[in-house]
Amino acid sequence: MRPIRHSLTALALLIGLATLPACQADDPPDRGAGPEKTWVLQDIDGKPFPARATLEFPEAGRLAGTAPCNRYFGTLALPYPNFDAKGIGATKRACPDLAAEGLFFAALEKMTRVEISGDTLVLSADTGAEMRFTAE
After folding, report:
1. Are β-strands 130-135 and 85-90 bridged in parallel, bridged antiparallel, or unpaired?
2. By three-state DSSP, how is residue 2 classified?
3. How does pLDDT run across 60-80, given as a tens digit for each residue?
4. What angle (nearest 5°) sits at the alpha carbon of residue 49, between those of residues 93 and 136?
5. pLDDT digit string (tens) for 96-116?
6. What pTM, to 2 d.p., does this model score?
7. How far is CA 106 from CA 26, 39, 67, 103, in A?
8. What is d(CA 68, CA 14) in angstroms, rounded to the nearest whole number?
9. Residue 123 near residue 110, CB atoms below 8 Å
10. What's the Rg (C-alpha) of the chain?
11. Nearest CA among 96, 30, 36, 91 for reference residue 66
């Protein structure tokens, strides 16, 4: 009788494991990227970005990072792969890169979709606008 009980337990375990949702490549950035990753902006619409700006996902539904002059933070209002940065706030330091910072925030607010593939994160909009980041 014991071997049957162990076989049934093993079968139940296998069925349970088979029904768990699998981790997929399209996990949301706040799970797939993880709080340990910092994404560095490489270009906006194919043009190299002239300053340093980063994007992080410190916890579910949140985004943060550094713009060329200031730290910023906000929320992600839509589920992955949709991207809708809401309530973006930032510190208020001045620096020579304020124009680049304005470009960064204006582009970030337009983005509606996110895609993560390996060490590359791409934000895009229906208009064709795009921001490409790489993992640091």
Report:
1. unpaired
2. helix
3. 899 999 999 999 999 998 888
4. 85
5. 999 999 999 999 999 999 999
6. 0.74
7. 26, 18, 12, 5
8. 51
9. no
10. 20
11. 91
Is the pLDDT reported for residue 33 higher than 80?
A: no
Q: Which helix (H) or strand (E) holds 4?
A: helix 2-19
Contacts 24+ apart (CB under 8 A), 73-77: 76/28, 76/29, 76/30
- Output the six-digit token pair for 101: 């910072």
Length of the chain: 136
Measure CA of the first residue to CA of the last residue in the chain; give whole Å: 57
Task: Return the percent helix, strand and coil in the chain, to nearest 5.
Answer: 25, 35, 40
Q: List, in order, residues 6 or more apart from 68 with CB less than 8 Å away.
A: 51, 52, 53, 95, 97, 98, 100, 101, 104
Q: How confident is the model at residue 34 (pLDDT cuts 50, 70, 90)?
A: low
Res 88: pLDDT: 94
The whole-angstrom separation of Cα 58 and Cα 83 is 16
Tell me the torsion sign for CA atoms 48, 54, 56, 62.
negative
Cβ distance 129 to 110 under 8 Å?
yes
